[in-house]
Design a protein that fits this description.
This protein is α/β, with parallel strands linked by helices. The protein has two domains: 342 residues, Aminopeptidase (3-Layer(aba) Sandwich); 112 residues, 2-Layer Sandwich (Alpha-Beta Plaits), CATH 3.30.70. 40% of the residues lie in helices and 19% in strands. Helix 2 runs antiparallel to helix 4, helix 2 packs across helix 12 and helix 4 runs parallel beside helix 12.
Amino acid sequence: MKSRLRTALLSLSALASTPALAEPLADADRTAILAEVDRGAPAMARNALQIWSWAEVGFQETKSSGLLQKDLKAAGFKVTAGVAGMPTAFIASFKNGDGPVIGILAEYDALPGLAQAAEPERHVIDGIAGHACGHNLFGAASVAAAIATKNWMVAHGIKGELRVYGAPAEEGGSGKVFLVRSGLTKDVSAMLHWHAGDGYSAMQGHALANVSAKFRFHGLASHAAAAPERGRSALDGVEAMDNMVNMMREHVPQETRIHYVITDGGKAPNVVPDTAEVYYYVRHPDQQQVADIMERVKKAAEGAALGTGTTVEYDQIGGTFDLLPNDTLGHVMYDNLKQVPLPTYTAQEQAFIDKIAATLPKGGRKQAGGVAPYSSGEIMSASTDVGDVSYTTPTAGMSAGTWAPGTPPHSWQAVAASGNSVGTKGAEVAAKTLALTAVQLFQSPDTLAAAKKELDERRGPDFVYRSLLGDKAPSLDYRKAPVSKN
């Protein structure tokens, strides 16, 4: 935990001395860039809503990825698809001579089990997934920002390379980890990203490191009434493991989060299931701690198999670092976010927000007033594969108000707003902020140098990147339902 304390102290120090290296954009330049994004806003909204309607889960986002690639190619980017062993990943590059490399991350995967209409009441629709984290908005707005930035570079002769990283399977598949591990981000001067949310912020905080895995138990099938003694229940193995892990919760660091779902428990009560599967996440602010705790979970699985006469297989799915703040870049992004006009809503849109709020505990929360004050170093109780990016290249992010205030991520309310003009209006703010920040950084070599120095100081002189996934290949089928033998 010494590294965590050191990082927290650096965050406090950064707050005390705000970096002021980047020259602010001239008013005329800012106005021109905002207008450039405005021209592309209708296409951005169409893309976001189209991706929302497809709602493709991790590593299966063929149509969503293809749509974004098509627009980038049409805008003059060179697109390389299927990078880092992931068919739906891509890198789109526009190079205009030698200079800095600025990257923009794009996501587009949906979450299973949350198909929902774009309506302010619970209305389940056909489909296996829904955009409950707003990645349809994320991908579309990042591409819109990149196209606007590219057009600006051409018009003003700005030197350097602009890249869009199409990163699949953020929800558990650790897509960006494979991009980093393959060395595809190592020459990036600054990486920018954003996320859907219920307010506007450029807070640069920490996320939780995360290791996820599936445990597959194998037993012997038999008639559950006529010959139970001949069976060995794989489901018993899963339930015994879950009981032991639940008892373990008392004996792990208090910052730990452990959650699981049984993804296969058999098909009929009168058949002793010979296969069963449980899917686990383990989170903690420290990467080593999360790896150590998962080893204890593995021991629980082995003990459960021994006690139930079954066997168990361990299949690691994901593994992500915590998120490393970069205040040098964060302040640039914050200053630009404050310069972007926030949306005004039609009467119909405001009614949608109000109806959504009425479905939330205590009616949600009061409408956020503008951009939240800048902060750094807070530990957020969620995980992201942006963490690995942030440990290897200077990285900054922001959130935009795409949902009704008080809306939790991974909820039907988030799905509904992400498929509505309320969501696309918030995404437009993100696109403008990313474009302004990218343009400013292309013209601020001192800021990029300071951001790299800050990264080096935060991660320490002895840092060597080693993925929590080791040399494991992407789990391209991790969202597919397991096939039971029963």
